[in-house]
Amino acid sequence: MHSPEPGIDPLRGIGMTSQRTRDRMASRLADQGIRDPRVLEVMAREPRHLFLDEALSHRAYEDTSLPIGHGQTLSQPWIVARMTELVIQEQPSRVLEVGTGSGYQTLVLSRLVPELWSVERINALHRRAGQRLRLLQASNFRLRLADGGHGWPEQAPFDVILLTACAGEMPAPLLAQLADTGVLITPLADAQGQQWLTRVRRRGSAFEHQRLEPVRFVPLLEGVIR
Ligand code: SAH
């Protein structure tokens, strides 16, 4: 990458992608109820604008989801923060993310959990996410191009599984790949089609559901696009 001006680091950004803009996003997240200082610190530090096409990067720190191509979206900062908070509350060692997308949520998680696996079904997104994560020197993660509904059986069990797309019904393989007392954090639709962020905790063969906030995610789809 070349610098736009001598002495300016393109990874850190300028103007609408500057450190000051990131700090403002972090204080807004705190106002919106994000309490965990580790989440706020990581999101204030990491360059979210690098996970968007250049034409959209100036909007990266707005309180909104943004298109990343292929009909998919980078989740709004609040939802990334909230899901990250829910993941690290569990003090997990092994985390599986379904829906790598841009890789931004993957990056934030990789800074806060020991080991991370992330699955994406669209090859173009999977590849670009890998490039960005390597550029930012994340190292404790592995990406796979696959239908995440099947999980990542060779690496199971996971302490936390996070879905960043909404399933009609919970894929059974994901529940099976949870460690005992592990949790799955996912959007789940009710009978009216309203999606809720939901925490499913495994207790042996039982699964307790807890409904959290109303959310809106793209659907979990089957198959792989190469
Ligand atoms: N966390 C991502 C969210 C991207 S949107 C981000 O913030 O950028 C959800 C992603 O889930 C999309 O990239 C979509 O392609 C992916 N997805 C949907 N169904 C999937 C499946 N069955 N397996 C893996 N990825 C899936």
Automatic annotation (TrEMBL):
It is an enzyme of class 2 (transferase). The keyword Oxidoreductase does not apply. The active site is at residue 75. Gene3D superfamilies: Vaccinia Virus protein VP39. It is found in: Cytoplasm. GO terms for biological process: methylation; protein repair. Its EC number is 2.1.1.77. Belongs to the methyltransferase superfamily. L-isoaspartyl/D-aspartyl protein methyltransferase family. This is Protein-L-isoaspartate O-methyltransferase. It comes from Halomonas korlensis. The lineage of its organism: Bacteria, Pseudomonadati, Pseudomonadota, Gammaproteobacteria, Oceanospirillales. The gene is pcm.
